[in-house]
Design a protein that fits this description.
This is Glycosyltransferase. With 88 residues, the chain is an alpha/beta fold. The chain is 39% helix and 26% strand. Helix 1 links the parallel strand 1 and strand 2 (32-39). It is globular and about 35 Å long.
Length: 88
């Protein structure tokens, strides 16, 4: 079973690595997984941090929205991108 975990992010550059590490720690060995971060029009370095994280971990994916559309729209974009059997 593959689990897709969708995480909306707006100006969260400092928190992203910690969030990914904690999620992976709790799901380690239990399920195939993908972490999908959705950059909801951040104005900091969120997009670059996501690119760096993706380069180091193939389980990390991201979607970049052109501007801030809000939490629900970011979740929807991540759900649409997800390929798992279950989306959290």
């Amino acid at each position: 079973m593959k689990i897709s975990i969708v995480i909306p992010a707006y100006n969260e550059e400092e928190n992203l690595p910690e969030v990914a590490a904690r999620i992976k720690e709790h799901l380690s060995g239990r399920f195939e997984r993908e972490l999908i971060f959705v950059d909801d029009g951040s104005q900091d370095n969120t997009q670059q941090v996501l690119r760096d994280m993706r380069a180091q971990d193939p389980d990390i994916h991201f979607v970049v929205l052109a501007r801030n559309f809000g939490h629900q729209s970011a979740l929807r974009a991540g759900i649409d991108y997800a390929t798992g059997d279950c989306v959290i």
